[in-house]
């Protein structure tokens, strides 16, 4: 009889590896401890992986030659790990206490151009936005999914997390046009994930984006403290934990921030070291 296993997973853009705030590495480590997660995927420089894992006494994988802008840390043994050539993405096979082996993938898709700016500020057509998304990030997502395809086919428990730098089509639907300047967009990255059979853990738990928007961008670039020369900063959900597997069930998912971050320009002493909120999802594996 198989043993049921629960695992809590966190995705966390570390904002230049904690360099944007004072004592960033210690603040990242504290955030991980406060989260209660057992597996964490970092994005935006791989360096926090080793430093934070050593502080916590955890296992870690970060690409030594710097090609992958991501790292993974785990309470549980990492049996093998690799990165995707030419991509900011790492993969790790992790063994849970039950003996179950899962695959964790962490990715950081390219940030520019940013689709919501094309909609909110430039008023570009939906066709133009989708074409841009495919050129900027769609090909990256395709590479990640090609790497994961054999594992998806095998039905092993699989988790894909990261900063995807694009919203979800589940949030920009026809009935949400009023919140998005009249736009409904089938964002290619999230559509690709759905078509590959991956489930968006936050939206499975919180299916109504009006009630639970799940904003992850941004903790410091608020509407009043926009990025660069933006007239305001659109708030959106661009960090995700996707999952796949017939024996995997998501039981909770939340957006996580420690403390009360001050806006950009007054952020250096924030307890929270990132300009993104983290996402934490808890899963049961049967």
TrEMBL record:
<keyword id="KW-0269">Exonuclease</keyword>
<keyword id="KW-0378">Hydrolase</keyword>
<keyword id="KW-0255">Endonuclease</keyword>
<keyword id="KW-0540">Nuclease</keyword>
<dbReference type="InterPro" id="IPR036691">
    <property type="entry name" value="Endo/exonu/phosph_ase_sf"/>
</dbReference>
<dbReference type="Pfam" id="PF03372">
    <property type="entry name" value="Exo_endo_phos"/>
</dbReference>
<feature type="domain" description="Endonuclease/exonuclease/phosphatase">
    <location>
        <begin position="10"/>
        <end position="276"/>
    </location>
</feature>
<dbReference type="InterPro" id="IPR005135">
    <property type="entry name" value="Endo/exonuclease/phosphatase"/>
</dbReference>
<dbReference type="GO" id="GO:0004527">
    <property type="term" value="F:exonuclease activity"/>
</dbReference>
<dbReference type="GO" id="GO:0004519">
    <property type="term" value="F:endonuclease activity"/>
</dbReference>
<protein>
    <submittedName>
        <fullName>Endonuclease/exonuclease/phosphatase family protein</fullName>
    </submittedName>
</protein>
